[in-house]
Amino acid sequence: MANYYSDHPEIGFYLNHPLMKRIVELKERNFEDAKKYDYAPVDLGDAIENYKQILDITGDVAANIIAPNSESVDLEGPHLENGRMIYASKTFENIDATRKAGLWGVSMPRRYGGLNLPNAVFSMLSEVISASDAGFQNIWSLQSCIDTLYEFGSEEQRQKYIPRVCAGEGMSMDLTEPDAGSDLQRVMLKATFDEKENCWRLNGVKRFITNGDSDIHLVLARSEEGTKDGRGLSMFIYDKRNGGVDVRHIEHKLGIHGSPTCELTYKNAKAELCGSTRLGLIKYVMALMNGARLGIAAQSVGLSQEAYNEGLAYAKERQQFGQKIIEFPAVYDMLSRMKAKLDAGRSLLYQTACYVDVYKCLEDIERDRKLTPEEKQELKKYQRLADAFTPLAKGMNSEYANQNAYDAISIHGGSGFIMEYKSQRLYRDARIFSIYEGTTQLQVVAAIRYITNGTMLQNIKDMAAGLECSDCVAALKARVEKLIPIYEEALANVKALESQDALDFLARRLYDMTCELVMSLLIIRDASAAPELFEKSANVYVRMTEEDVIGKSAYIKSFKAEDLVSFRAAEPAAEEA
Fold first, then answer.
1. Which one, of 138, 6, 121, 20, lies nearest residue 63 by Cα?
2. Alpha carbon distance 76, 203 (integer Å)
3. In CA terms, which of 191, 342, 541, 543 is 20 to 30 Å from 101?
């Protein structure tokens, strides 16, 4: 019987991540919950076994319920009835199956009905579910919005809402508006305090809201009259049970058809303030978006895995000119690159997730007691790493998902263009990954300061210096080490241009080089520990990195600030009135 977790041992490998022991120690707080809950782990080994069991259950549900339903969901999609969004028929089956399996509110503490899973394990669950249906993963993974309510809401709000999410109620984050896409400072949905009812009232329109008719919404709204920037925005909790919000429209999208994307109208809707006023965008949404971006990275890895599976299976079966097409160099080159991108991207995903786990666990502990000086330093260290790595993980994995889905169709040839084959759906679903929760261009903007100020260069040097690897990949490490001075020179060349426009123009090249060096070192580390899983990918990925770093550095070395004039001149002239 198929299982989307156990069929891919590469996922379970990351339960042995070097940081996992520390994460479990922090998350379980000396395993105090074992005294109160019979399902809580008693030690590290017990915790890891618990994670494996949950992953195995998820893999079974994904392979045998969600995946078989995916085609029907894609064809039917959600629809609108009397101002309400109605899921596709099979989506209800998926929700019911995940509820019965206890897969909701999984990151929340046990005292609220959760499973107290670390972010790294939640990312594994997201990957597995995305491989079966990326659209359903959107609905399921939005439960992570509860992390923001847990972090910034009151204890009364925690007790009111978290158990509902743990029982399977859905969530959404209502940020975007018709005139405020990536520029959330322009949000104008109005929040006014109702003195008589002692509550807030929301009025306005939200657009492109994933799972927009959910049970519990986190809403960004303008609470400070007369303001026009992010300092006038606050975060609110809207409970669908109170009414006041209707679905005006469901978008007809290229892909992820099972995931409803809604336009909402707020009409005097009752809401609760989450946290403090004025911090909605500058603090709470930033936390919400970082979590969502890591979720898209996991979603991307899951789809990349499925695209590779489809391409590999077809190449093994399809014959042309008397040969299986997998024997053709052009095809096995494509497949080897797909697998290398998948494995390197997954390693980056779980490295980032582990960084997030350490600092988030320490932040949680700090709510109950004062941290030691050593713990404070540890928190700061891993928060900086998480902030630097999150845009790398989201940007590169979303791009790789698109590339792998594209290549899966190419391997299928004409059949890949036919709607009866899964590859076309993966291709349509993947396209949004590099757009929502911040386009790849915005991930570059988020990452570039860590690149230009030398933070990522130092991280790369530290990773290389601390990497002890086996003989099978030692030569690969040496090759990567030769690329680091080339990267450093390219970085210096860009800074020497002393032009912000030139930096913006070349930023994507610096970003790609940074990501590829990081992922090369990570996949070498993984191949050293498990050559049977990763040695081939490490060999391929390092060669891809050499190709890219050397090529991009040559481009940057020959670039001059005045070259920008040539690129602008290539734009078509505006028509005269």
1. 6
2. 32
3. 342
Distance CA 500, CA 473 (A): 39
Q: How large is the angle between the packed helices 134-141 and 286-317, nearest 10 degrees?
A: 160
Three-state SS at 271: strand
Say which residue the tokens 């074992």 belong to: 34
Which DSSP symbol is given to 240? G
Cβ of 275: how many Cβ atoms within 10 Å? 20
Band of pLDDT at residue 570, cut at 50, 70 and 90: low
| Cα distance between residue 537 and residue 531, in whole Å | 9
The Cα-based distances of 202 to 93, 193, 239, 243, 322 in angstroms read 33, 9, 12, 11, 67
Dist CA 520 CA 351 (whole Å): 13
- Kindly tell me the sign of the dihedral angle through the C-alpha atoms of 442, 444, 450, 453: negative
The CA distance from 94 to 66, in Å, is 6
Tell which residue, 258, 40, 295, has the closest CA to residue 148. Answer: 295
Residue 227 to residue 234: CA distance in whole angstroms: 12
Within a 13 Å sphere around the CA of 55, how many CA atoms are in the beta-carbon half?
A: 29
- Residue 577: pLDDT band by 50, 70, 90 thresholds? very low
Contacts of 479 (CB under 8 A, 6+ apart): 542, 546
Query: Who contacts 464 (Cβ-Cβ below 8 Å, separation ≥6)?
Result: 477, 480, 481, 484, 521
Q: Which H or E run includes 79?
A: strand 79-81
How high is the pLDDT of residue 576? 47
Q: Identify whether the C-beta of residue 175 lies closer than 8 Å to the C-beta of residue 187.
A: yes
- Return the closest-CA partner of residue 272 out of 429, 126, 421, 156: 156
Q: What is the pLDDT of residues 317-343, one digit of tens each?
A: 999 999 999 999 999 999 999 999 999
Helices (H) and strands (E) in the chain, counts: 19, 11
Using alpha carbons only, give the angle 548, 552, 554 rounded to the nearest 5 degrees: 120
Quick one: what percent of the chain has pLDDT higher than 90? 96
Phi (first) and psi of residue 209, to 5 degrees: -95, 115
Nearest to 228 by CA among 188, 255, 259, 189: 188
Q: What secondary structure letter does DSSP report for 10? A: H
DSSP-derived secondary structure for 390-431 = HHHHHHHHHHHHHHHHHHHHHHHGGGGGSTTSHHHHHHHHHT
Q: Dihedral, CA atoms, 397, 15, 292, 241, nearest 10 degrees?
A: 140
Helix (H) or strand (E) holding 173: strand 171-174
542, 525 contact by CB (below 8 A): no
**pTM of the complete model:** 0.97
How far is the C-alpha of 115 from the C-alpha of 104, rounded, in Å?
A: 9
Per residue in 162-193, pLDDT (tens digit) is 999 999 999 999 999 998 888 899 999 999 99
- Report how far apart, in Å, the C-alpha atoms of 142 and of each of 98, 106, 126, 295, 356 are: 14, 12, 10, 9, 18
CB atoms within 10 A of CB 485: 10
